[in-house]
Specification:
The protein is an all-alpha fold and 458 residues long. Helix content is 79%, strand content 0%. The longest helix has 32 residues. It is globular. The termini are close together.
C-alpha cells in the first residue's frame, strides 16, 4: 500500500489516551468471561453426570450445549451490532453472562441446566464477535494489534482461572455442591463486566455510520483522536466507498468483499485445525495416556494454561512491532514441529512423558504467540466498516463450528489412529504456512478506513 494510505500521512501522532486503554480493557472483560465460562465445565463433568443421572451420550451433549450456543451467538451477533451499535450488544452479552452463571449454579433439573448453559454459549459466541470489533474501532492503528490482543489475553487468563478455580473449589467444597460453586463464581466477573459496559463509550466509527455526528465527535475527542473532524470525514469517505463497492449497503457476500471473506474463513479454520481445543479440553486425558497419574495430569494441565497465558502476553508486545504475518510464519513451523514430536512419542512403544509434556508446552507456546493472538485481531481488521460486524460474525461462526467438530471428533480419531491425529494437526500447520506466504495480507499499522482500498501488501 502506498504511503498516502498510511495514517501517519494524515498527520496522526502516535499517542494513546487512558480512556482508550480503559475502553479496550473494559470490552476485553468479555474475553475473560469467554475463557472462564468455556473452561469451567471441565471440573464439573463427573458431578453433573451423577447429579442428573446422565449417560455418557447425555453428558457429551451437556458439555457440547455451550458450543452449540457459541455457534448461534456468533452467527447472529454481527447484524444487531451493525444496526443498533456495539455497546447495546455488549450490554446484552453481559446480562446473558450474569443470568447464565446464576442459572447453571442453581439449576435443579437437567433441561434447566442445559437452557442456561446454552444461554452462556450464546454470550460467548456474541462476545467473540463484538469485543474485538469494538476494541479495533476505538484504537489508533499503531496500538490496535496489542489492544485487540488484550481480548485474547483475557480469554487465555479466563481459561487458566477456570482451571485454578475448579481445583481450589474441589478441595474446599463437598463434591455434591462443588459444581454449583464452580459455575456460581462466574457471576462475580459477569457482574463486573455488566457494570463496566454501562459506562463504555459507543464506537465512534459506528456513530459516524449511523449519522450521529455530534456524538461521534464527542467520543473521538474523549478517545484522543488527533483531529476528530478530519477523522470523521475520512470515515464518511470510507463508508461511501464501501457502499459503492458492494452496490448495496451492508451486503457481505459480494465480489467486492470476497477476499476478506475468504481470509476470515481460512484463518478461523486453521485456528482449530491446529488441534488447540483438543488439547485444552482433553489435556488431563492426553497426559494420562502418556503415563502420568491423575493428580500429575491435572497439574500438567494447569502448566498448559500458564504457558498459554505467558506467551499470549509476549504476543501483545510483538504483534504491532513485527506484524501479523511474521508471527504466523514462526507459529506455523513451531507448532508443526511440536505436534510431530507428540505424534512420534505416542506412536513409539514406550512414550516418554517428559517429551510429551515438552511437545505440548511447545505447541501451546507457539500457538499463543501466533495464531492465538493474530486470529481475532486480523478478522476485526480485514473487513470494511459497513460489514465489519457481519464479517466478524462469519469468522467467529466458522471458528466455533470448527471448534465443535474438532472437539467432538478428537476422542474418536485418537482411539482409532492414535498419535497420528497429532501428525494431522501438524500437517495442517504446514499448510497454514503456505497460505500465509501466498495469500494472507499484512494489516499492521494501516487505518481501518484504508484497509480495503486494495489488497494490502504482502
Amino acid at each position: 500500500m502506498s504511503d498516502k494510505h498510511l495514517p501517519t500521512a494524515r498527520g496522526a501522532h502516535k499517542r494513546v489516551t487512558l480512556i482508550t486503554i480503559l475502553s479496550a480493557a473494559g470490552a476485553a472483560l468479555g474475553g475473560l468471561l469467554f475463557g472462564l465460562d468455556t473452561a469451567v465445565i471441565s471440573g464439573a463433568t463427573s458431578a453433573l453426570q451423577e447429579r442428573f443421572a446422565l449417560s455418557d451420550a447425555h453428558l457429551g451433549f451437556t458439555v457440547a450445549s455451550a458450543l452449540i450456543g457459541t455457534i448461534v451467538g456468533a452467527l447472529v451477533a454481527g447484524s444487531p451490532s451493525d444496526r443498533f451499535g456495539r455497546k447495546p450488544v455488549l450490554l446484552t452479552v453481559a446480562i446473558a453472562y450474569v443470568v447464565s452463571s446464576l442459572g447453571t449454579a442453581l439449576a435443579e433439573t437437567w433441561p434447566v441446566f442445559l437452557a442456561f448453559r446454552f444461554l452462556g454459549g450464546l454470550a460467548i459466541g456474541a462476545a467473540s464477535v463484538i469485543a474485538p470489533i469494538y476494541i479495533a474501532e476505538v484504537s489508533p492503528p499503531h496500538v490496535r494489534g496489542r489492544l485487540v490482543a488484550l481480548n485474547q489475553l483475557n480469554i487465555v487468563f479466563g481459561i487458566l482461572l477456570a482451571f485454578i478455580s475448579n481445583y481450589v473449589v474441589a478441595g474446599l467444597v463437598s463434591p455434591d455442591m462443588a459444581w454449583r460453586w464452580m459455575f456460581g463464581i462466574v457471576t462475580i466477573p459477569s457482574a463486573l463486566f455488566l457494570a463496566v459496559t454501562l459506562v463504555l463509550p459507543e464506537s465512534p466509527r459506528w456513530l459516524v455510520s449511523a449519522d450521529r455526528d455530534a456524538q461521534a465527535l464527542t467520543v473521538m475527542d474523549r478517545l484522543g483522536f488527533p483531529d476528530p473532524a478530519e477523522d470523521m470525514r475520512h470515515m464518511r469517505e470510507a463508508t461511501a466507498r464501501d457502499v459503492a463497492a458492494s452496490h448495496a449497503t451492508g451486503k457481505l457476500f459480494t465480489g467486492a468483499h470476497s477476499f476478506p471473506v475468504a481470509c476470515a474463513i481460512a484463518i478461523a479454520m486453521f485456528n482449530q485445525l491446529s488441534g488447540i481445543n483438543a488439547l485444552l479440553y482433553y489435556a488431563p486425558h492426553i497426559f494420562e495416556l502418556s503415563g502420568a497419574a491423575a493428580d500429575s495430569a491435572m497439574l500438567q494441565s494447569i502448566a498448559i494454561g500458564g504457558t498459554n497465558l505467558v506467551f499470549t502476553i509476549a504476543a501483545m508486545f510483538l504483534i504491532d512491532r513485527f506484524g501479523r504475518r511474521p508471527l504466523l510464519f514462526f507459529g506455523s513451523i513451531a507448532t508443526a514441529a511440536a505436534l510431530f514430536l507428540v505424534a512420534w512419542q505416542f506412536e513409539s512403544k514406550t512414550p516418554n512423558g517428559t517429551l510429551v509434556l515438552v511437545g505440548l508446552l511447545g505447541f501451546i507456546a507457539a500457538f499463543a504467540i501466533s495464531q492465538g493472538a493474530v486470529i481475532w485481531v486480523f478478522i476485526s481488521e480485514i473487513f470494511p466498516n459497513t460489514v465489519r460486524g457481519k464479517g466478524q460474525a462469519l469468522g467467529s461462526t466458522t471458528h466455533w463450528i470448527m471448534a465443535a467438530a474438532i472437539t467432538w471428533a478428537f476422542p474418536v480419531f485418537a482411539t482409532h489412529v492414535g498419535g497420528w491425529v497429532f501428525a494431522f494437526f501438524g500437517a495442517m500447520m504446514l499448510l497454514q504456512f503456505f497460505w500465509v506466504w501466498k495469500v494472507m495480507p499484512e494489516t499492521n499499522g494501516i487505518s481501518l478506513e484504508d484497509m480495503n482500498l486494495e489488497r494490502v501488501g504482502r
